[in-house]
Amino acid sequence: TILGKIEQAHQRQSPEDEARLDAEFHMAIIEASHNVVMLHMMRSMFQLLREGVFYNRQVMFCQKTRRMTLLDQHRAINSALQQRDPDAARAAMLAHLGFVETALSDQQKAERNEAVARQRIWHERQR
């Protein structure tokens, strides 16, 4: 299964494989939804999804606890889908999306703070 391959990549600590498989996992969910409009839209944007997921994964990979949280969230989504429990699937997906949004926002804030700190250091050295 794709989830099994994600788990193997996680154990190998291979962010590139995890990113690629993460995109495939998301695409498989969309395909399983049988939502034709969403399917056509996402197929046309699949490369962008893969590139976006890779970037996100690189950001997420910098903290080991985040990687584990992502894996656990994918397991929860997969389990809910396998059990055909739409409420659990929705809850798991919303938790996943919320986590990713917060983690990326936190990373962007940290990057902005670092840039400001570098500018301050540069200005101090110019005095």
Distance between termini? 60 Å
Determine the mean pLDDT: 87
Strand content: under 5%
Find the CATH superfamily.
GntR ligand-binding domain-like
Shape: elongated
CATH architecture: Up-down Bundle
How many domain units?
1
Output the number of helix runs. Answer: 6
Report Rg: 18 Å
Which percent bin holds the helix content? over 70%
Show unreliable segments.
none
CATH topology: Four Helix Bundle (Hemerythrin (Met), subunit A)
- Got a strand count? 0
Given this structure, which CATH class is correct?
Mainly Alpha
Mind summarizing the main beta sheet? none
Description:
There is one protein chain. The protein has a single domain, classed as Up-down Bundle (Four Helix Bundle (Hemerythrin (Met), subunit A)), CATH 1.20.120.530. The protein is elongated, with a radius of gyration of 18 Å. It contains 6 helices and no strands. It is an all-alpha fold. The longest helix is centred in the C-terminal third of the chain and has 41 residues. The model has no long low-confidence stretch (mean pLDDT 87). The N and C termini lie far apart (60 Å).
Q: What are the salient characteristics of this protein?
A:
mainly alpha; Four Helix Bundle (Hemerythrin (Met), subunit A); 6 helices; 91% helix
